[in-house]
Structure formats: structure tokens, C-alpha cells
Amino acid sequence: MLKIDNLQANVADKQILKGLSLTINPGEIHAIMGPNGAGKSTLGYTLGGRPGYEVTGGSVDFNGQDLLELEPHERAAAGLFLGFQYPVEIPGVSFVQFLREAANAQRKGRGEEPLSGGEFLKLAREKAGLLRMDMDMLKRPVNVGFSGGEKKRAEMVQMGILDPKLAILDETDSGLDIDALRICGEGINAIMRAPDKAVLLITHYQRLLDYVKPDFVHVLAAGRIVRSGGPELALQLEEEGYEAVVA
Ligand code: ADP
Ligand code: MG
Ligand code: MG
User: Which CATH architecture has domain 2-246?
Assistant: First the structure.
């Protein structure tokens, strides 16, 4: 599904990704862990096509397409979803309106008809229910005044509506209390655990992985994957710290 080969990328003229390679097959869940400043968010943003993240080498194939050639909206239409470490607030735009625009922009990119109001509401209710999110909450402006947990749950509702092939989730567990962590973990499983889908979870902690069991765990340090293993690697990292494992 995703084949990253020797990816190099600069942010503000500084090389952050220094030859990163990673292959993700359909049906797999991968976790990337690593110290602060390792380049984890940079990897997510580079794959999402965020302006200012300049690719200087390497290649990324996404389901047979050259991902790096696509505009960000084309990447979304192709089935890529990026969940942000820090979801943005958009005063003046309600979450339902935002979700409907996003869903229909994605459908347009695929040459599909837009959802009718009724179709959209049915879909939104279903996904909001998965994340135990009240529809009234989604009538409020995007993320404005939402708690950390509500922002992440709302983002998972968005993921459910967009129904991506590959979700890259950057520290979805940050700022979550224990209940929100479980709800988000179960939401990720309900939406993304399928033979034709895959997830790349970026996380500092084992706790999200208790709910969303990864098939592979990778350590990203100084812009490269320096170690890969199974779920036991996350436990070892938690126990011994990055320095001991990476050294
Ligand atoms: P992580 O998510 O692993 O904590 P990041 O990808 O956010 O790491 O950051 C990797 C490195 O890139 C850090 O040294 C950070 O300071 C630097 N960096 C990220 N964004 C910018 C930016 N906009 N301008 C300059 N440096 C940046
Ligand atoms: Mg960080
Ligand atoms: Mg980060």
C-alpha cells in the first residue's frame, strides 16, 4: 500500500528526514515511536503534502501512484488521511459543515456525486456514535473550546466519514484521559481494522497500543528508522527508554 524509499526532507532548509524507508501492506498496523524532535510529525506532514516540507530525495509509492507528485487534496481523494498532533480551531465554521465539505470535496476528487443532506447526516450520526460524540457538539465551530479529548474524538469522526485506505495518526493519544483513550482506540479499530486498510500510528507511549495492537513497531531517531520489531519492541522502549534501545 505504502512504500517509502530513502525519503529525505527539509524543513526551513534543515534536513529532518535523512533517508527513511518503510513499507506498509494492506491490513497492517504500524507504530512509529521515537524521541522528541526525531522527525515523526515531519514524516506525517511530508506524506500529507504540507507546504514548507520540502522533499529532497527518495520516493513514496501509494497504491501504485507517486504520492509526492499529488497535491494534498489529491492525496486525500486517493485515500490518505492525516490526523494532527494539534488539531486546529476554525471559528465561524461548524464541525458538521466542515465534515460535509470535506466528504464532498473527497467525492468530487474521485468523480463521485456529492452526498445529499440526508445521506451525510446519517453517515455523520453513525460515526459520531462510534466515538460517543453528541451531534450537538458537532454543530459548534470546529474545535473551538473543545477539550483535548473532544478534539481527538472529533478528528476520529472525520476519519470515519472520509473512510481512508491509510490513516497516519500523529499522537492521537496526547491529551486524552483514560476513557477518551479507550474510545479513540476502539474508534480506530472500528474504522480502520480491515484487510484493505492500514494505519501508521505515531505515538510516544505504549498505552494507545494496548487498544490498537500494532503488527510492527519502529523507532524513528534523527530522521531515520533505526530499529523495527513486533509489539514487544514498544514494551521494551517503555521499560528501558529510547536511549538504551537506540544506542
Ligand atoms: P517529532 O514529531 O518527532 O517530535 P518533528 O517532526 O516535529 O519531531 O520535528 C523534527 C525537527 O524539525 C525538530 O528539530 C524541529 O525543531 C524541526 N522543525 C519542525 N518544524 C520546523 C519548522 N517549521 N521550522 C524549523 N524547524 C522545524
Ligand atoms: Mg513531538
Ligand atoms: Mg511530533
Answer: 3-Layer(aba) Sandwich (3.40)
- Helix (H/G/I), strand (E/B), else coil: 2: strand
Ion ligand 2: residues, CB within 5 A, are 36
Mutation to probe ligand 1, out of 8, 10, 17, 42 (largest number of atoms < 8 A from CB): 42
CB count within 10 Å of CB 178 equals 9
**Structure pTM?**
0.94
- Ligand 1 atom nearest to 220, measured from its CA: 3
Rounded Cα distance between 162 and 109, Å, is: 12
CB 183 within 8 A of CB 172: no
Predicted ipTM of the assembly: 0.94
What are the grid coordinates assigned to 119, written together? 445521506
Per the structure block, which three cell numbers stand in for 165?
A: 485506505
Domain residue extents for the chain = 2-246
Q: What is the mean pLDDT, run by run of 10 residues, along the chain of 247 residues? A: 98 97 98 94 96 97 97 94 88 94 92 94 96 93 92 95 96 88 96 98 91 96 96 93 82
